[in-house]
Automatic annotation (TrEMBL):
Molecular function GO labels: transmembrane transporter activity
Database matches in Pfam families: BPD_transp_2
Principal place of residence: membrane
InterPro entries hit by this protein: ABC_transp_permease (IPR001851)
Organism for this UniProt entry: Palleronia abyssalis
GO cellular component, one term: plasma membrane
Membrane topology: Multi-pass membrane protein
Keywords of this entry: Cell inner membrane, Cell membrane, Membrane, Transmembrane, Transmembrane helix, Transport
Coiled coil: none
This protein's name: Ribose import permease protein RbsC
Amino acid sequence: MKDPLTQRLLFLCGLLVAAFIAGSLLSSHFLQASTVGYLLQYVPVLGVLGMAQTLVMLSGGPGIDLSIGATMSLVGLAIAGLFGLGVPLLVACLIGLVIGGVLGAVNAFLVCVMRVPSLMGTLATFFAYSGLALALTGGSPIGGIPEWFGVLSQGRFLGVPIHMWVVFVPLAVGLHVMLSMTRFGAHIYAAGNDERAAFLSGVNVWRLRFTLYCLSGVIAALAAIMTLSWFQAARPDAGEGMELLSVTIAVLGGAHIFGGIGRISGTVLAVLIVTTLQVALQLANISQAWQLAAIGILLIGSVMADNAVGDKLRARARRAAS
């Protein structure tokens, strides 16, 4: 009998194939070669946010980061603002990564130190960061980004956007290795599965979760840099809706909402499914409202599948313990 997580990955592969078939039926333009490049243009930004959300969820708590899209917007504005003040763009991007980590640390402080439930704490920072982004710009984008910076997200190598090669793939591989082959990754799963047992075995659960919220902010800053390169401008609404999509991707990929279960490989497959579905619906000229409804149905189905996998794994753990 296959491991439930392996079954989940096979299910996701089947769902991806089904999404491609549905896309080809919805639009005759879907199977064109140009559609692949268009589809992959969206994958890195959504994908890195989904991976950040997966990390936060895996550590338990339960953990969630609803401010991730607002963090992305605010960091993008900060980078563009620093560049406008004369800071070299690459230096501004490095500072943006630090700012992302600081914004993530605010979430970590609320959740890990003040003991505010992650849903409420990160919802509060979502409103704070979003409001600050609008207040600083009056709702207007900040332009003036040089054309050469667009190579990151608009350039192609072997027909694939460069930010797939230099950001998305290295991050996915790095996080997979971290979770599956390092002590830190083992501690993440231990904290998500049983916080008390992890603490008694020597895992500093507080520090672990604090670190992951900070890392989530840094990854959101990476998404901001890619978006800045793509649009050649910083928009205060660049991350609007991304928080819910990142949750959908994480849960669809197999991250259990209460922690301890999930893989980065599942998150990668999930972002491909969600992106394929979005592009197919756009090419078919289906309204945004129906697109959101489709994503909602997908999320409901993924939660149901997530609960089924979680029940199997917990039952297996109880049998092993007895």
